[in-house]
Amino acid sequence: MIVRELKPKVYSLSAIDWDRKLFDELVPLPEGTSYNAYLVKGSEKTALIDTVHPSMSDDLIKALKGMGLARLDYIVSNHAEADHSGSIPALLAEFPEARVLANVKCRSLLKAALKLPAEALTLIQDEQVISLGDKSLRFMWVPWVHWPDTTITYLQEDRIVFSCDFLGAHLATSDLYASDEARVERAALTYYAEIMMPYRPNVNKHLKRLEGVDIEMIAPSHGPVHARPDFILSLYRRWAGDQTRPQVVIPYLSMYESTAKMVAYLVDRLMGKGLSVQPFNVVDLDSGRFASALVEASTIVFASPTVLDGPHPAMAYAAYLANALRPKTKYAAIIGSYGWGTGMPESLTALLPNLKVAWLDAVNTGGAPRAEDFAALDRLADDIRAVNLGQEVVSAS
Ligand code: FEO
User: Fold this and answer.
1) 54: CA distance to ligand 1 center in Å?
2) Atom 3 of ligand 1 has which residue's CA nearest to it?
3) Looking at 191, 206, 240, which one is the last position of a domain?
4) Residue 145 pairs with which residues in a beta bridge?
5) Total domains, the chain
6) How far is the CA of 165 from the centre of ligand 1 (A)?
7) Are residues 299 and 199 in the same domain?
8) Is the CB of 81 under 6 A from ligand 1?
9) pLDDT tens column, 283-321
């Protein structure tokens, strides 16, 4: 770990996890990640904002010792999840005088997870300001950007927002700042999709609150620092806003080529109508790419063969993810084929109660698709084009 200065007496201490392939045994990390802590040295007191993954505690302590840090007054815990709080016990062993500052929800989660002694924890309130001497930290609660406990810490004199997970990105990079914006945008999009999208109304509320804050820099706890705050804030405003784009996401799989033929036909028809289409074979689903595709898509078409009168289990998993991620998608349809049971569309729809969509007519055929099934897919393509152009749909029930 190297120590890098963001502003005089304000330092980034980033534990870069180049090799991590999976987060929480769930989220693919194609570009690794980082866990960022930040040290703020005031004229009277010193605060560390967030820590790092517990597997990298030693690196953080070594870096702090290498700076000649003899005393640490505060450890600000913006969020209790272990990738940011997990090194607190090791830090308290090294700096027993430090007090852990946390809001009431974060405090109870820290107590449960880390078994911290009550005397080590000091409660902070929303909008409370603490002085470090010539620098001061203001705390802003931003609950439910994916956990109920998150705080943003604002370093008032240097106008830096320490946003923890919010506005972050899983990206291992040697860049201190988000200079490669295309790369950072891809990583931040996936991160938003997987972590924040289910809480879109809260994201919008917190973005609104940040409009009243004078921000020079945003320093998240994953990924590079934003020296151009409007870059990430405007992306978040777009992703979390109500507007969708005319994009069709098609999670699909096929057992005997019938559903595959229907998907190929529909993709061609939609492309022929100038729509953006993204099919995902869900047998080996990249959940990060799938989640990212759902962020702004207007339409989802689930395409599944029937297994035991319901969707194929791989499709049930994709539906579970789509339902849990609560995208702002406005239209959906189900297509597929069956051998003997016709109940797949109903069973699949029942897995998707969180999608607030208008359902277009399903196309579910017995065995291989026939001319009338392709005609039904033509009508579905017409309907998808119509709803994306804001026209009235005539064939939807
Ligand atoms: Fe990066 Fe919610 O922890």
Assistant:
1) 13
2) 81
3) 240
4) none
5) 2
6) 5
7) no
8) yes
9) 999 999 999 999 999 999 999 999 999 999 999 999 999
